[in-house]
Design goal:
- By secondary structure, the chain is an alpha/beta fold.
- The protein has five domains: 4-50 and 161-218, no CATH class; 55-153, Beta Barrel (OB fold (Dihydrolipoamide Acetyltransferase, E2P)); 228-249 and 654-699, no CATH class; 260-448, P-loop containing nucleotide triphosphate hydrolases (Rossmann fold), CATH 3.40.50.300; 458-614, P-loop containing nucleotide triphosphate hydrolases (Rossmann fold, 3-Layer(aba) Sandwich).
- 40% of the residues lie in helices and 17% in strands.
- It is built from 24 helices and 21 strands.
- Strands 11-12-10-13-14-9-15 form a seven-stranded parallel β-sheet, sandwiched between helices.
- The radius of gyration is 27 Å and the shape is globular.
- Bound molecules: adenosine-5'-diphosphate (ADP) and magnesium ion.
- Residues 271, 273-274, 277, 300, 302-308, 428, 452, 585 line the site of adenosine-5'-diphosphate.
Length: 700
Amino acid sequence: MRPDILAPLFGRVAALPGVGPKTAKLFDRLLARPGAEARVVDLLFHLPTNVVDRSQRPKIAEAPMDTMVVIKATVVEHRRPQGRFARAPFRVLVEDETGDIELVFFLANPDWIERSLPIGGTRWISGRIELYDGRRQMVHPDRVLDEAGLARLPPFEAVYGLTEGLQTRYVLRATEEAMTRLPALPEWQEPSVLAANKLPAFAEALRGAHRPESASALSPQHPARQRLALDELLASQLALRLVRAKMRRLPGRENRGDGRLSHAIESALPYSLTSAQQRALADIRADLGSDKRMLRLVQGDVGSGKTIVAALAMASVAECGRQSALMAPTEILARQHYERLAPLLEPVGLRVALLTGRLKASERAALHAAIGAGEIDVVVGTHALVQTDLAFHDLGLAVVDEQHRFGVQQRLALGSKGEAVDVLVMTATPIPRTLALTAFGDMDSSALDEKPPGRTPISTRALPASRIGEVVAGLQRALAQGARAYWVCPLVEENEDLDLAAAEERAADLRRYFGDAVGLLHGRMKGSEKDAVMEAFQRGDARLLVATTVIEVGVDVPEATIMVIEHAERFGLAQLHQLRGRVGRGTGQSSCLLLYKGPLSETAKARLTIIRQTEDGFRIAEEDLRLRGEGEILGTRQAGMPGFRLADLTAHARLLAIARDDAELILRRDPELSSERGKALRVLLYLFERDEAIRLLRAG
Ligand code: ADP
Ligand code: MG
C-alpha cells in the first residue's frame, strides 16, 4: 500500500484548482497512458524542455540576432498584403530612436493587428530578430504588450512539451498548484552524498527544475535536475536489486524443447544464423531448459536479427506444449511483429494471433477464449496483453520488445500471467557497454553484436539545408526508378502545432513534385489512419513518406532505401542512428541524407561526423555518452532510457554509479528497508512507482 503521505501526488491533475474538465483531458493526453488519467506526480515529472529568457531589453540597432529579446518600439506603418498576394504576410514597421524593423505576420488577422499594434502606439514586443534578404525582421512576435502587460511579463518562462490545445500558461498554473501541494517528504538520500555533490532537497529540486532562470538550468548537470535524476536512479537501482535477488531464488519450469519445431523453422530459412544469433539462442535455450526463471535481455542494434531469435525461442517453448506472448510498445510495432512472426511460425503448425486494443469487443472475447483454451501458441500484442481479464492456458515465455518503453513493472506484469514464466526482453536501444549492466541490472544479457552478412553499408551524407533543391531532384530520379523514401521532419517539443505545420507544409511542397506518391504520417493521427498510410507505403502506393519522428520506433519496409532527415542538427546521435536504421534493410544500396541548418555547434558538428563515419550502434552509443557527458543542452529531448522519466543514463552516468553503490550498501545494511532511512526509501520506491519491488520485499 502506498503511504498516505504520497496521496496528494497521486491525486488527479483534474482536481487541481484552475484545471477545468477540458484542460484535464488535455493533461491526460499529454501525461497519461491511453485511457488513464494524469496524476499530479506525472505533471511534476514533466519537466520543462526550454526556457524563454525575456530579460534582454536592447535597442533595435543593438539587438542580437536569433535571440529572444523584448524591444520597445513605436508603430510606424501597416503594410497589408495586396490583391493577388493576399497570402503574403502582413508586415508592420516599427521603430525606436536607433532604427526600425518589420514585424511579419503570416495569415494574420488584420483586426487583431489594428488593435494590438495601432499606428503611433508604443508597445513592448517580444520575439527573435532575424536577417532576411538583408533586412532585419521579427516573424510572429510571441508577445505584444503595453506597459501594464510588460509589468506582468516574467523575465524567465519555462517551456513545456505540450499537446494540441494545451497552453504553456495552463501548465505553469498547474505545476504551481502542484508544487504548493507537495507534502513534506522524509529525506531518502544519504546526507553525505547530497553534500558531496551539492544537491538540493527534493522539493527544492522540483521547484528549481520547473522554474528555470537561465538556459543552464535545463542542463542535465544542473543541481536540480541531478537531484531528481539521482532519486529516480536510486529507486530504480533498489528495485532492480530487490527484483534480481528475488528472481535468483525463483523456481522456473524446464522448458526444454525437443527441437522438432525450431529445427524445422531454422532449416527453412533462406540464410544461416550469425554466430551472434547462435550464441544468444544457446544462452536462451540454456535458460529455458533450466529449472530457474529466465530473465534475459537480448540487445541488438536495428537489423541485427532479433526477430528470428525470438521466433526460435518461442518455438522451443511450443515444443513443450506451452504458449508464448510477445508485447510491443505500439500498435504499428505489434502488427509488424505479427506479420513477420506468422510466416516463420505458421508453416510448422503453430497458431499465431494478434491482440491489440483495437479489436472489437466480440473479437477480443473470442481471442481471449482461444488463448485461454490453449488454441493459440503465440500471441503478439500491445499493453492489451497485460490486461487483467486475459488468462493464458499455459504461458511459458513472455517476450517484451522494449524499444525503451517498458520498465521492470511491465515485464513483471506480463511474467505474472502464467506460472513461472520465462522472460526475454529485446531492445534496440544501443546502450553503451559501460552502462548496460547497470541499466538492466536485474537481467542476464546477450548481445547481437554482429550484423547479418551481405548488408551494403548505408551511404550517409550531410548537406546544408540550402541544397534541398538537389535533394528533391535526386529523389525525383530515384522515385522514377521505383525507389521508396522517408522524409523526416523533426519534432520540436515546445510546439507540436508548429511541428505538424512543418510536416504538413513539407508534404504539400513535395506533392508539387511527386503528387499522390507522397504520404504523411504524424503522431496526432488516429491509429487506423496511421496504419492506412503505412500500408500504402508498404504496398508502394505511397513512395515518399513524410513523417515526424513517429517512424523512429521500428517501422520496417525493406524496399525503402532513402532517408532524408531535415534539421538533422536537432537530433541526438541515438535518434539519428535509429532513424537511419529504417533504411538499409533490403538488398538495395541505401542512402541517408542529413539536411542541416547552420551555424552548427561543435557538438552538433561532432554528431554529424560520427553518424557519417559508423553504423555500429554500440560505438555510436559510446560516442553519444562522451559528447553528452560534456554537458550539452539539447534543444530536443532525447529518447529516454527504459522506464526513466527524469534521469538520462548517458548524461547521468556518474549519478548512476553513485546510485548503484548506494543501493548495494543500503541493502547490505538494511535488506528489509526497516530502518529510519529504509522507511524513507520505501516512500521513494512508491514515488517512482517501483511498488512491485516493495511487494517482493514484503513477500520476503
Ligand atoms: P531487428 O528486429 O533486430 O531490427 P530483424 O529481426 O528485423 O532485425 O532482421 C532484419 C532482417 O535481417 C530481416 O529481414 C531478417 O530476415 C534478416 N536476417 C535476420 N537474421 C539473418 C541472418 N542470419 N542472415 C541474413 N539475414 C538475416
Ligand atoms: Mg526455465
